[in-house]
Structure formats: C-alpha cells, structure tokens
Amino acid sequence: MKPIHVDVAVIGAGTAGMGAYRAARAHTHSVLLIEGGAYGTTCARVGCMPSKLLIAAAEAAHQARHASRFGVQVRDIAIDGAAVMARVQRERDRFVGFVLETVEAIAPSDRLRAKVSFQDADTLVTAQGQLIHAQRIVIATGSIPMLAPVLKGLSTRLLTNENIFDLPTLPTSLAVFGPGVVGMELAQAMSRLGVHVKVFGVGGGIAGIRDPAVRDYANKVFNEEFYLDASAQVKSVKETATGVEVHYLHRDGAWQTDAFDFVLAATGRTPDLAALALENTGLELNERGVPVFDRFTQQCGNSSIFIAGDASNDIPLLHEAADQGRIAGENAGRYPAIQPGLRRMPMAVVFTDPQIASVGFNLKQLDEQFKDRFAEGIVSFEDQGRSRVMLRNKGILKVYGEQGSGLFLGAEMFGPAAEHIGHLLAWAAQQRMTISDMLTMPFYHPVIEEGLRTALRALNHKLHIGPQVVERCMDCGPGA
Predict the structure, then answer these.
(1) CATH value of 4-144+270-334 in 1.10.3430.10, 3.50.50.60, 3.30.300.130, 3.40.630.10
(2) 284, burial (CB in 10 Å: exposed 0-12, middle 13-18, buried 19+)
(3) Helix (H, G, I), strand (E, B) or coil at 120
(4) pLDDT tens column, 274-294
(5) CA atoms within a 13 Å half-sphere pointing along the CA-CB vector of 362
(6) How many Cα neighbours within 13 Å face the side chain of 232?
(7) Burial per residue of 8-30, b for 16 or more beta-carbon CB atoms within 10 angstroms, e otherwise
(8) What is the pTM of this model?
(9) Nearest one of 136, 115, 107, 144 to 10, comparing CA atoms
(10) Distance CA 116, CA 36 (A)
(11) Residues facing residue 300 across a β-bridge
C-alpha cells in the first residue's frame, strides 16, 4: 500500500478530534482525520444527549406522579418502557445524524477509516500495514468504560453507557455500580421511570461532590428515592440464567442477596490509548499510561505530538474537549510556533434532581492552596421563596471567597436550577469578580437566584467586607 504523507494527522473524530482538524486546517491544508470506530462523538451517541433524553422522560413521570401536591390530580400513570426507549433512540440517532453530516462534509481525501498505532514518533501504521508519515500528530482517541473487578465475570447482563441506550425497553430492576455522574443520572432516571434501582459505591463519593456538607445532604435526598450506599461492601456479583445476583452488606447491617435484571457499570472511564503503542513514541507517560503534556498548549513534552479531549484524562467534559481540540489543532498546524490557548474556568453540572453544580476551586483545592485564607457562605433552598412555590425546595449552595481581596473563588451546589446558577458563577469567576462586585448585579424577584444572593451576603460578612445578613430583609421580598 502506498504510504500517506501529511503535515498533521488527527487520531479520533470525536469532539476533540474534529475541533483539532478544523483548527489545524486554518494553518495547513495537509490534514488527515483518522477514525477507527463509529463516527458520532461520545456525547451524541452514548453520552450527554441520550442520557438527557432518558432524564427528560423521568422528569415527566415524576411531575405527573407528584402533581397532587399542587391540587392537580393525575390518575392512572403508566410508563411504556418500549416507547420511552424508542424516543431515546430516535432522538439520539437524530443528534448523531447531525454529527455525521459534519463529518461527511469533510473532503474524502482528508478522512481515513482505520485503526492506527505508532510505529515511531512521526509514523502511524494501520492494521492493514499502511504507513502514515505525519510531521505532527494529535491524539484524540477519547475514553472507554472501566470495569470494577467484582463485575468482570458478567457478560450478557452487563450494561455500560455504551449499550444501555440500545435496550428495547426499560428493565424491571437495575443494580448500578458507581455513584458518579453517569451512575447517579441514570440511576435516578430509571428509578423515576419505575425501575427498581439500587446503587453501590466505594469510598463515599457521590457525583463528584467535594464539600462534605453538600455531599451528606445529597446522600440523604437521593436515599429518599432509591437505595444508595456510596461506601458499599459487595462480596459477589453473579450472573444467572435470568439476571444478576448481588450479595452485599445492607446499610442496616445484614448481609443479603438481591436479584436484578441487569448491572450498570458506571465506575468511570479511562483514556482509550492501549492500542496506540505509545511506547514507540519515546514520550514520557504518567502512571495511567497517558503522555505527560502541557494543558495550556496540549503539547506532549517537547515533541510534535499533541493530545486532546478524554484521551488526555484532564477534564472529561464536552466543552473542555472542544477547547483542548482547538488548542491542540492550532499548535499542531502552526508548529513549531507553539502558543498557549484559553482554558476556561472549571465548571461541571450533574443533571440529577436536584441538580449538582461546581465552579472554580473545590473545597479540597481551597484547603491546599488557600489554607486559612478563605471563607464560605451558605444558603438552604428549603425555605427559599421561588423554590417553595415550585416545590423544588431541596438543596444547599456554598460559595467561597478569599480573605483580604474578597475575590470569588468557587462554589458547590446541590439544588434547583443549578445548571443555570452554575453558569452565572462560572462567568463571575472567569471575570475575577469579587463578592461585592457580584452583589451589585441585579436580582429579580421572585427567582431562585435570590438564594445565591443570600449566600453571597453571608460570605461577604464572613470576609469582613459586608454587614451581617438581615433575616427576612425587606428589599429581598418574602421568602427570598
């Protein structure tokens, strides 16, 4: 086979890879986009979009089931599992179709469907033996699900985020291993759709929440809906002819065995790098086998190899993958004129109900980097006016600020409209606003954001900048 010679080769056509391709093309027309699997991005095919479709169905069922709290009677609620999954798949395929249109708009000469590995630092080889000589290479191969040792004996009854959305109907019961972001979103959605759900975790973590007070509150609220043990002891998980048996120590202290239709493995994802033969590149690899790289340039060491997206194991979120892909592509395209790119304020949202949001420095980072130099403000949404009106009044918000400067450092929230409040806080943090600056912004009445104002006022007082918070203040309106 005839060797291919290009300026830039991009391995992976997901969000990061396509961003890298476009960015590199702005500097050179000799760019090859290589994909060894299905086109369609993790987000569209097995991540963000199908999970939100399932969550939307769950929210509709939950609202109908609890409409009586408003004096509205909704009778004979029935969940059509096949119809739920059919809509998830139909809309999922529509989103994937948009991505495929984007890929197909790329010139065929710039695309290659093949699995590749490194022969050396500037040569790739396909499974069929074709050589690709590239002056610069971007690794954007994404990630794959990790499997906990206790689950490795499972086969047909094992689900991950990569096949759960292809179920023809909803299961009757589901054991979820891993109360991380994916596990908690899908566990709650399934539970609200009538599936018997139990969630098992290790180490006490819940959906990435770092503040113990926020995590404890979330643990209490979630356990009101379904069984969640974030520090579970599981002795065995055994596949049977009809499902899966889980032998575990119940929270009440007794060992028991429960049967489930399926197990969902949501114990995290790992960079998909094993097949690349990175040992042939001469790159320095960390303990997880990921090339050591500069997160502001995405350059691996001093080489002409760059890495972006979930493959980098940095921040596995779509907007971060897009930023990393753009930075890596630009630097690969104009190499050796490397320039740092914009890395935005860290922000994450979990689409449970209540939602979870984190912005900026988390509590662990604050303890490490701002020891005894920060304060926190807190607000409960249980008595917050708009939240009570909508009967979405479970949750707390903590905001953090720096002593002396009054600079807003970060926040963690478990509560209503966290996806929107999280964006406001991320913008404020990226603009390096002080708590006083944020309090000069307008707050309409009645809105959930008035709860944010209460937390900011409490924080400003603890920073010795603002006055003590006045209970039931007249300018806040009732229940603010």
Answers:
(1) 3.50.50.60
(2) exposed
(3) strand
(4) 999 999 999 999 999 999 999
(5) 15
(6) 26
(7) bbbbbbbbbbbbbbbbbbebbeb
(8) 0.94
(9) 136
(10) 7
(11) 293
